[in-house]
């Protein structure tokens, strides 16, 4: 049994948290917020549940969250189970036909469904989508860039067009869209698209008020690995100058934020 004084302390903490968030909730009531789900929360069941509860809460108080997710750790694990070694080139997963089949299955049939179930259990309705649905995303193949030049990434693409109709319809119905970033090319070839950049493209197309990218590092460092160089905010001009100096894992996240703001999204955030 939890002592009464502990119950009272928890109640006070919740009340204080709600009071502190009232201004933010008022400001973003009825607004669209795109959230890229990733980092430690992808593989920690408690963090998954906490994230799902947060998304349901935002929907309940009148904010319109849109979830875009990746699934790198789960994809790597599934490939290992069937004897396929993951290969990375220029910081991106090399994707052949067999790998693409696994990527699609893990993202849509495992991660999307599990996350949607958790959000629904937390009290909000959801809809599961991918770039294949209703022409949500169209992508083109891209090559990786290294100091030695271009490298072939296989079936890896980048979003070129977005049709947000299905997402807007889900939001109008009070649902939380849960979206994986597999996307077809104009010829119908499925491509593996970086989820950070897909979330950015979607945020622009939706006219979102925020893009929030979840990660498992505290944020952006001006001079990594100097811990005291952690930045609380940065301008477009400053980030553009800093981009060539970033670690490979942070580059797509900051590209996503940069493109979103350049595309009209008022603010983009990196959140641990």
Which class do the helix and strand fractions yield? alpha/beta
- Helix count, DSSP H or I runs of 4 or more residues: 8
Topology as H/E string? HEHEHEEHEEEEEHEEEHEHHE
Low-confidence stretches: none
Mean pLDDT: 87
**CATH architecture, please?**
3-Layer(aba) Sandwich
Report the sheet with the most strands, covering strand number, pairing sense and barrel closure.
6 strands, parallel
| Spatial arrangement of strands, main beta sheet | 5-10-2-1-13-14
- CATH homologous superfamily title: Acetylglutamate kinase-like
Proportion of residues in helical segments: 40-55%
Q: What's the overall geometry?
A: globular
Distance between the termini: 33 Å
CATH class: Alpha Beta
Which radius of gyration do the C-alpha atoms yield?
A: 19 Å
**Oligomeric form:** single chain
Strand content: 15-25%
Could you explain how this protein is built, in words?
There is one protein chain. This protein has one domain (25-267): Carbamate kinase. The mean pLDDT is 87. α2 (45-60) crosses α4 (97-121) and α6 (195-206) packs parallel to α8. It is α/β, with parallel strands linked by helices and 272 residues long. It has helices at residues 4-28, 45-60, 72-81, 97-121, 165-172, 195-206, 236-242, 251-262; strands spanning 32-37, 64-69, 88-89, 92-93, 126-130, 137-141, 144-146, 149-151, 156-162, 176-180, 183-184, 190-193, 210-214, 267-271. It has 8 helices and 14 strands. Helices cover 42% and strands 22% of the residues. A 6-stranded parallel sheet has the order 5-10-2-1-13-14, with helices on both faces.
